[in-house]
Amino acid sequence: MSEVYAARRERLRERCAAGGSATALVTRPANVRYLAGAAPRGAVLLLGSSEDLLLCGAPPSGEADEGRPDEALRVQVVPRAGGDAAVAAADAAIVQGADSLAVEEHHLTVTRHRAIGAVAPRLRLADLGGAVEQLRVIKDEEEISCLRIGAEIADQALGELLESILVGRTERHLALELERRLVDHGADGPAFATSVGTGPNSGRRGHRPTDRRVEEGDFLSVCLGATYRGYRCEIGRTFVIGTSPADWQIELYDLVFAAQRAGREALVPGAAYRDVDRAARQVLDSAGHTEGLPALTGHGVGLEIDEDPQLAPAAMGKLDTCVPVTVEPGVHLPGRGGVRIDDTLVVRPEADGGPELLTITTKELLAL
After folding, report:
1. Smallest Cα–Cα separation from 249: which of 336, 361, 161?
2. Rounded to two decimals, what is the model's pTM?
3. Separation between Cα atoms, residue 292 and residue 17, nearest integer Å
């Protein structure tokens, strides 16, 4: 992997040079991990003019949950007493003879930015912007493999839950059980807080589980994800509890399923982000569900659960091959409940079979 990290840093170095900066300071944790491998909490990366440095408050522990940074990087430990790795990195840039430093202004606090300016007043600070995030959009096959394994874990955890007795159990209990099962099957942990919604809570995006108990005839919507080697995937499904679905439940489910299918089929290289959103949204709009729809149809996943691209009405940009995204339309009817169907897929050309579906739990409307 050392060559992979070195190649990523070189691509960033080329972008910095094009912007007039020979050095860069990366502080956002997911970006540090992308460029340097696993690193201690609070570590920063200096892309130096003569040497790249990983600066942190303590040496890497080597524990499994922390991992090891790229062995090709020199690690510099900053004394804890009043030490700030970002400030120390700016000082190191000066030592290397830099006269400018690109920083992630969207991540640095004002206080930290001022501290860097104070320790290196002759260092011209420029904005690195979202350069690293843009590099992270297209995944290599190793990254996709981690997402694929995470999706398998999430599918396993959800499949086991569906085989258990659900009536009478609370949303909170089911969410906790799902997160335990993720870890049991090899996940680093949940990719985000697991959402379980029943009855009138079903279908709500980002619903926080409550003590409401599962009842016969409820819609049950579940959204969970696994983190594997730092990479996060997502799956969401909706079921009916105990009895055959009511007519309104079948109608609503079929509608959301059709919207989700339209969004998945629109995932082709070169497709505009907003066109993917439009494909799914038009199905729901045509059925009269124009109010209360989610702000977006999907988003990128990777080292963070919500990355670029954003599949939203006003999103600018086009899909590339090897970009993993979610497609997650939903409809919630206040007081009644709703449906959400959510998959993680990787954009692939038609010659390679089209979009690769990572989350494979059935989307049939099951009565549990």
Report:
1. 336
2. 0.94
3. 45
